[in-house]
Design a protein that fits this description.
The complex is a heterodimer. In chain A, strands 11-10-16-7-8-15-12-13 form an 8-stranded antiparallel sheet. In chain A, strands 2-3-1-4-5-6 form a 6-stranded mixed sheet, sandwiched between helices. Chain A is an alpha+beta fold. In chain A, β10 and β11 form a beta hairpin. Chain A is globular and about 95 Å long. Chain A is built from 14 helices and 34 strands. Chain A is 25% helix and 34% strand. In chain B, the strands form 3 sheets. In chain B, strands 7-8-6-5-4-3-2-1-9 form a 9-stranded mixed sheet, sandwiched between helices. Chain B has 2 domains: 266 residues, tm_1862 like domain (pyruvate-formate lyase- activating enzyme, Alpha-Beta Horseshoe), CATH 3.80.30; 67 residues, Arc Repressor Mutant, subunit A (Orthogonal Bundle), CATH 1.10.10. Helix content of chain B is 44%, strand content 22%. Chain B contains 16 helices and 15 strands. By secondary structure, chain B is of the alpha/beta class. In chain B, α3 runs parallel beside α4 and α5 packs parallel to α7. The chains are: A alpha+beta, B alpha/beta. The interface between A and B is large, with 27 and 49 residues.
Chain lengths: 604, 392
């Protein structure tokens, strides 16, 4: 097809602003999916995505559109994840496009993530087609929202379109605008092949399906290719595109979007952001922007029933096939037994993985409070990265602990600004500056330790702004902090799962909260059991579980020992779920409850 | 029906289990009371004389079934225990008749212990003598307290003076041994009455004492009152102290502490009850009664109606059973044996000696001569300790 008739674009929108609904209208208008076959929100295929109303895996759909200029165009709609956890994936999806629809809910206005992604799109050189959605709603404010967008992008408010994704009103006009404003792709087909892998999925029969945007050259069935970052070579078994199902074709030329299947079975060998080139006549340089996925948030994931360890292992392996950003290594916790330390892009990623493990694999899990990765500088100047607080070396050999910071942008109506600034301060934020957007919204810029965000920052942000504030952030590297490792000791033995890295001034507060919790949760034993919180060798909080004084069945009447045996049987069952900490037997439930309760409130 | 169930109902499994054991102990259950006490959730009920008569007939029929089976094997009874409920709802003569029938049908070993449980509210002085005439040689009197106020709170059907009279009658009846039950851990307002009752009983020269912590069964009136806050039950700590005080007093006065709740003057241990802790064989007849023969445990229909109906159909009223072997037998051995002053052999508990010493240092265990037993403080937490000894 003539390149000038191709348009590659994506939709940038905040959660619930109607991206998937709009995509559904496009699929209908272009007859890509006949109306009667249209499952609600076709693009969000996974059940979980549909429930949460968010897109986890990007999709790319080819549509044929007869524009009002009388020409037929090939539109490739590349779907993007809508959450800050997946900003790298977003950037790769953007790199596969020449344009982006910026979709904003007329009743909600611009949200911080939209701003972040819109700037990202502008920086990537994309043509922005701004549009206000939900104009059918009585509460919609088209004018105000259009003003906000024009302030944000520095454009004429007249360029902002109006649409109702629900009714389809304005959708054709929007597609025409895409055809008109978004430039066609520019790469040449006679150059050596360079195709961007902007996503991948896993098919259990055929292996990895790489979603590609051919930037230059051509990829054909049977061709030998090389993935430039990983060095993996393979031959192309199948080339095709999505419409929206997979449709095989002989090849894809520069400017086109589709998929390739190479027989590679391991998703970690085909990475998002990598460049595909030909093994014969390879390109000299890969496309820019590739990065190794770097998990920033870690948590221990354990099966509640230790017999499920193998199942958890299998489930993680399977999830990993579809989620290159997920990492996991075995670990053994005294309190929780065998499990995994898993790395995630962020908290949402963690929640999605946990939910998929529980829902799709039927596992009952305990997840420890998430922690960030710490950069530890020892006295000799050596640097190590700590993913589990209990691996933190002795404070005596540590010169400095650095933690990851983010550059955060918070959008909030002026009325709630005070509360949000307060929150930023409580969370050790470094305030930078503030800009008013069209008088309706303030943009606050600050730096925050990532550790402060991963627990409940987002919930706090929402509750202190009645749901109006929104947040976007990007990682800006490590900064030193006055951090210490706090351990929880039961009967003098440290319990690894509760170790945490906290700011020194908050050690006592966290310590007394968790020791109190454990005192309530751990059943009384035959002897007194001290529960302590300690930093280094120094105890900062202490509770005592008093010994049980009376637990006896008076008699076995008339030789009826069944009641006693039932009790004994219950104790025996209970013992299976007991964890030994030194000489103290603790039901795993107590640990689980304490960990779950511990996660409810941010230690500070 | 499983093969085992069929076996039991057709009695072959029982006779087989019985086969290796020459002697057995016999328990007879009398599930009636004059009135229900406020804390009790045992298998007992208040019923008409006609109902009781029907039950008595059924019990005799059950005895007949077993006697004819066991008669073939030529077995005899080592001890006989008539419990309840309140067996003394029957007159002394009726009781004597029941005991003689049992002795006749099964054959009673010479000098066998024959116990009857008595409620002080039931018998006149001569009923005790009549029961002795029928073979009874041990009475267990459900005194619970010797204070009127306490007895009222517990809604016992007798007063303190009545209880004293019953005890005197029992002691004068010619029985070899007289025991009494007492409750401690009493509700607020009854402070001191337990230890005082204890003193009075020792003053009478009672041979045997069982002390039980008051633990109102779920849904009993007392439990409901406690839940509503109308009655205050003491804290575990206070109950524990009371128990330890009683142990100290009784031991000082020459009573042997031979089981968690049981004390006696030398030579007056209840051999029948000891059999339960020692995992000896016993046969229980009557509604809800439990039996153990070799590795087989089984129990009767608890429901009176079903019990009567099954007997009426000429079948054994067995409603459940289990075969206890291997590890489970060891668990029973520890669970039951640790209740007694004999304890269990060190080999039976699966423990590092380090943990045993630790428990001993903590004052919960006593280890000597290759045997492990509980100290009084250990007895108070025996549920925890036994689990610890079995599986740590």
């Amino acid at each position: 097809m003539d390149k000038s008739r191709i348009r590659n674009f994506c939709i940038i929108a905040h959660i619930d602003h109607g991206k998937s609904t709009l995509a559904d209208r496009f699929l209908e208008i272009t007859d890509t999916v006949p109306r009667q076959k249209m499952a609600e929100q076709y693009l969000d295929r996974m059940e979980l995505e549909r429930e949460r109303g968010i897109t986890i895996k990007a999709q790319a759909v080819r549509m044929q559109y007869m524009a009002t200029d009388g020409e037929e165009y090939r539109l490739n709609l590349i779907d993007t994840p809508g959450h800050v956890d997946f900003s790298y994936e977003v950037s790769r999806s953007l790199a596969a496009c020449e344009g982006a629809i910026l979709l904003v809910d007329a009743s909600q206005g611009v949200e911080a993530q939209t701003v972040g992604n819109a700037y990202l799109a502008v920086e990537s050189g994309l043509e922005i087609v701004p549009v206000v959605n939900k104009i059918d709603l009585p509460a919609s404010d088209f004018e105000g929202t259009a003003m906000e967008i024009s302030d944000l992008l520095g454009i004429d408010p007249g360029e902002v379109l109006a649409v109702s994704a629900k009714t389809g009103e304005g959708a054709r006009e929007l597609l025409d605008a895409v055809v008109r404003r978004v430039p066609p792709p520019s790469g040449e087909a006679d150059m050596p092949l360079r195709a961007l892998v902007f996503d991948s999925s896993y098919d259990s029969y055929r292996g990895v399906v790489a979603f590609v945007r051919v930037v230059e050259g051509e990829v054909k069935r049977g061709m030998k290719v090389r993935f430039m970052a990983t060095g993996v070579t393979a031959s192309v078994d199948e080339v095709g595109y999505f419409s929206p199902d997979m449709i095989s074709c002989p090849g894809l030329e520069a400017g086109e979007v589709g998929y390739i299947i190479t027989g590679v079975k391991d998703v970690t060998r085909i990475k998002v952001g990598d460049t595909v080139t030909g093994r014969e006549a390879p390109a000299a340089e890969p496309l820019p922007g590739y990065r190794e996925p770097k998990p920033m948030v870690f948590a221990g994931v354990y099966p509640v029933d230790s017999d499920d360890f193998t199942d958890l292992n299998d489930a993680l392996e399977k999830l990993k096939l579809n989620d290159a950003a997920l990492s996991f290594t075995r670990e053994n916790s005294k309190a929780l037994g065998f499990g995994f330390r898993c790395g995630f892009l962020g908290l949402l990623h963690l929640e999605i993985v946990q939910e998929r493990l529980e829902r799709e694999y039927g596992l009952d899990l305990v997840v420890t409070s998430p922690n960030v990765v710490y950069e530890v500088v020892d006295r000799g100047g050596g640097v190590t990265y700590i993913r589990n607080p209990s691996d933190m070396p002795d404070m005596g050999v540590v010169k400095e602990i650095r933690e990851p910071y983010v550059q955060a942008t918070i959008l909030v109506p002026p009325d709630y600004m005070g509360g949000i600034l307060e929150l930023v301060k409580e969370r050790r934020g470094i305030y930078q500056d503030m800009t008013y957007l069209s008088g309706r919204r303030v943009e606050i810029r600050c730096r925050l330790p990532l550790a402060e965000i991963v627990v409940d920052f987002y919930d706090q942000l929402k509750s202190r702004s009645r749901g109006y504030a929104s947040l976007d952030y990007e990682h800006v590297g490590f900064l030193a902090g006055n951090l210490v490792r706090l351990d929880i000791l039961i009967n003098g033995e440290p319990v690894d799962a509760f170790s945490i890295i906290v700011e020194r001034s908050r050690a006592h507060e966290y310590g007394s909260r968790i020791t109190k919790k454990l005192r309530e949760l751990i059943p009384r034993q035959l002897f007194d059991v001290p529960v302590q919180a300690a930093v280094g060798g120094k105890v900062v909080a202490r509770e005592t579980i008093k010994a049980r004084r009376k637990d006896v069945l008076a008699k076995c009447y008339g030789g009826d020992v069944t009641r006693k045996k039932k009790l004994l049987q219950k104790q025996k069952e209970g013992k299976k779920r007991m964890k030994m900490v030194g000489r103290v037997e603790i039901p795993q439930e107590a640990f689980i409850s304490a960990l779950r309760a511990g996660g409810e409130e941010k230690p500070r | 029906m499983s093969a085992l169930a069929y076996d039991i109902k057709s009695s072959t499994a029982v006779v087989r289990a019985w086969g290796g054991n020459v002697k057995v102990r016999l328990y007879l259950h009398w599930p009636f009371c004059r009135s229900r006490c406020a804390y009790c959730d045992f298998n007992t009920r208040v019923a008409s004389v006609g109902y009781q008569e029907a039950y008595r007939t059924a019990l005799l029929a059950e005895m007949g079934m077993w006697a004819s089976m066991l008669g073939r094997a030529g077995k005899t009874i080592r001890s006989l225990y008539l419990g309840g409920g309140t067996p003394s709802c029957m007159s002394g003569d009726e009781t004597a008749a029941l005991l003689s029938t049992a002795a006749e049908r099964f054959g009673l070993e010479d000098g066998a212990e024959v116990t009857v449980e008595v409620n002080p509210a039931t018998w006149a002085e001569d009923d005790y003598a009549r029961a002795v005439f029928g073979g009874a040689n041990r009475f267990s009197v459900g005194v619970q307290s010797l204070h009127d106020g306490t007895l009222r709170v517990l809604s016992r059907p007798h007063g303190a003076e009545e209880a004293m009279e019953a005890l005197r009658a029992a002691l004068d009846s010619g029985a070899r041994s007289v025991g009494a039950d007492l409750l401690y851990g009493l509700p607020a307002g009854c402070e001191g009455t337990f230890l005082d009752s204890l003193e009075k009983l020792m003053g009478l020269g009672i041979h045997h004492l069982s002390v039980y912590a008051l633990s109102p069964g779920a849904k009993t009136p007392l439990a409901r009152m406690a839940a509503r806050g109308e009655v205050a039950l003491p804290e575990d700590e206070a109950v524990a102290e009371e128990y330890l005080a009683a142990v100290e007093i009784l031991v000082r006065r020459g009573y042997e502490h031979y089981e968690i709740s049981n004390f006696c003057r030398p030579g007056h241990r209840c051999r029948h009850n000891l059999a339960y802790w020692r995992r000896e064989d016993y046969l229980g007849l009557g509604a809800g009664a439990h039996s153990k023969l070799g590795g087989l445990r089984f129990w009767n229909e608890r429901s009176l109606l079903r019990y009567l109906r099954t007997i009426g159909e000429g079948r054994l009223p067995v409603s459940g059973w289990e075969v206890v072997t291997g590890e489970e037998a060891r668990e029973e051995m520890v669970m039951l044996g640790m209740r007694t002053s004999r304890g269990v052999s060190e080999r039976t508990v699966s423990h590092s000696s380090g943990r045993l010493r630790e428990l001993a240092r903590g004052g919960l265990l006593d280890i000597s001569g290759g045997r492990v037993k509980l100290t009084p403080r250990g007895m108070l937490v025996s549920n925890l300790l036994i689990a610890d000894l079995l599986w740590s």
